[in-house]
Design goal:
The protein is of the alpha/beta class and 233 residues long. The chain is built from nine helices and seven strands; from the N terminus they run E-H-E-H-H-E-E-H-H-E-H-E-H-H-E-H. The longest helix is centred in the C-terminal third of the chain and has 21 residues. The structure holds cytidine-5'-diphosphate. The site of cytidine-5'-diphosphate has 16 residues, from helix 2, helix 4 and helix 8.
Length: 233
Amino acid sequence: MTEREGLVVTIDGPAGSGKSSTAREVARRLGFRHMDSGAFYRALTYGLLDAGVGPGRWEGLTTPDLEGVGVSVQPTDMGFRVLLGSRSPEAEIRSSRVTAHVSRLAGLSVVRSWLLGIQRDAGRAGRLVADGRDMGTVVFPGAEVKVFLTADLPERARRRLTEQGVVGPSAAEIVRETARIGERDRGDSERELSPLRCPEDALELDTTYLTFEEQVKAIMERVREVDGLLRQA
Ligand code: CDP
């Protein structure tokens, strides 16, 4: 039935739920490619801000405008590299400025349709672990394994701060980060297009009290189960 040669695994969830690190490790163990779709939205946001096109002008963006930003996606052995022109803006796309604005850009229909093509091309051959907000609902609705990762909001804020190198974040820092993440969650869940949703057939994992290894193992078990069933069919 499918042209693909291997499974697609999707991992969706809110900010700071550990999607990208979990997806990267699951992909490594399976020998699949990892696609961090958030990096595409972030690269486009950074490219526009860097070119002096501020959020006030985003509503009027057209597909040629997006193409003009110079964002491209290149396959690598392990996944995909996002380029802006010829450089890889890995650090810049994670800046607080980009994080504060990315949800707004991600709500635009022109942006979502443009990136949809890029993401589907990346998944055409299968053997992919894709993470984001709408991987299982919109981009790869036929994915064989779908996962939805959640965790309590303050725990996600604590993890995000630790990831940024903050050692033993204070209560005040956690409160501030909780507010920032909460606002992005609202934007991503309440938007009209491709809002953050748990796919109907997803394995839902609350990782608040799980270790990284436990959550990776739970997903690997699901993949093996589905793969075994598909081989028998
Ligand atoms: O890693 P983190 O959870 O902070 O976010 P990300 O995955 O890097 O995504 C950044 C932003 O891109 C999200 O807050 C969404 O607004 C947008 N995004 C989206 O709309 N759809 C996706 N599939 C992935 C990201």
